[in-house]
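Shape is hard to put into words, and the shape of a protein is harder than most. The fold becomes a row of whole numbers, each drawn from a learned catalogue of backbone shapes. The outcome of that step, for a single protein, is printed below.
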Amino acid sequence: MSCTPTANSSIALKLGGFANTRSALDYAATGETGVNFHDIRRGRVNVMSYRDLRERALAAASGMAKLGLSPGERIGLVADTSADFLVLFYGAQYAGVVACTLPYQVLPGGRQAYTQRLRSLHKASGARWLLAPSVVMTCAEEAVGRTADAIAFEAFLESCCPGDEGPAIRLVGADIPAYVQFSSGSTSEPKGVVVRQQALMANANAIACHGLRIQAADRACSWLPFCHDMGLVGFSVVAMCCQRSVDYLSPYAFAASPLSWLKLMSEQATTIVYAPSFAWRLAARRCRGTEQLDLRLLRIAGVGGDRVRIEDLDAFVDVMSVAGFRREAFQPSYGLAEATLAVTMGDTDLQPIIDYVNIEERGEGFGVALPRSSKHSAQQTFVSAGRPLPGIDVHILDQKDRQLPERTIGKLWVRGPAVAQAYQGKTDAPLPRADGFLDTGDLGYMFAGELFVTGRAKEVILLRGHNVWPQDVERVAANAVRADETDVAAIGLERDGGEKLVVLVQGQPVGVEEQERIRRTLVAAIATAFGATPEVILLRNNSLPYTSSGKLARVCVKAMYLEGRWLHSSQMASENVV
């Protein structure tokens, strides 16, 4: 089956200017481009033009009305990587129903943990209906219990007649909710960000026109999950608003074989792709046979969703330059669900800006980033996340909310038309301050108009009076035992008036002698690098929690540790592998 074309022959490229997702899809449907879902292992592809997507979405909107769903009412959608999910998501847009996107993934603990996660998120959504793929219907039915109704994607869509637009669908106002995005780090108290149509369109316009500078020959590729803002907004809404074809691969396919992601880009002549920093490192480490790849047309290799590490980018360039990959393609960025998606983006076709610094510490992650001449004399290396998009203000504030000068690390606050106003069900507690600024919870500094993100305020570890970033500890630990950094977690705990460092490593051998060797190796490496003796815990594979975008969820790790989820003892006997 042929994929949708890269360019439209019947309509002109239009970037933004749409009032809402409905009007954007109406325009995209007049062309030939669309979405393509690839199953690399089976050699299959499911193709759907935007014309087909619109027709099926209108039928789905009619089906939602038949369920008794009214405009403004919530509906839960389990966001698997499928054409069915997009049909239902855009069907909700036409119906004025607010889609609450929920994860399609197995968490540590397996089916039971996933069911509990769905139960928590669905309850927070306030939805009467939960729609899910048939393969997870048992979990969905258990999750809603008697409080709501669950129905399979397939059964619902079969009941919707193609071409049936049902009763006249009301116009979708710019100020009504478009969907609810649950923040990726949500734990016991899920936080659903209510994203309104005007905020969504404002961010989509800024990303397309000023961030990505979309061109008529662009084609996108993504394995990012639709329950995450970068996957849903960046590689569905923005792509659709620009009438761009997208090739999708499931997150599980990427995790199993990063090479399949690169092969897909090569085969489809991809020009735009985005992924967290760790994904580029993982692809570089696991990929072999790159001689057959052609990445010369990759115009933008975006990096976002977590702190960008220059080592990850360097590793990818070292391996993929033979395939024609250019370092200038990397485009670091910064964003968060509470700001719809993007806040800052790097310049296109320029190498990422690197800042080599020594930190003059002022406690709690605050300090001054003093410039150094090279990485050899630097204590830390930070990659610029780019400049604020038009209409977005970024302020760096101290503990008393006073604005800080350049190169001073403080709390990162943002303001702009894409900033959400409230969390789901918490209209009495607006997200931004009265002046419109939102506390992101991140730390960083500005220099020459560029934003440098240094970490999460809640994750900073204080050791012997010094601020230590968990990513740095994880890198040292991973290198010491030749593990992947995504399999290592570092957290800090207050103990006896001081800070205790805990390092957890999953997927290590279970033999007692080998455990003891690993413990000694880790303790020695971390003590040398940071002057502290850690508590070391070995875990089975798939034990650490991750966010919907694949990032390590350190806040969840800390909560699970404090709940006694894992045995915690600095002596690594066989029972420590839990």
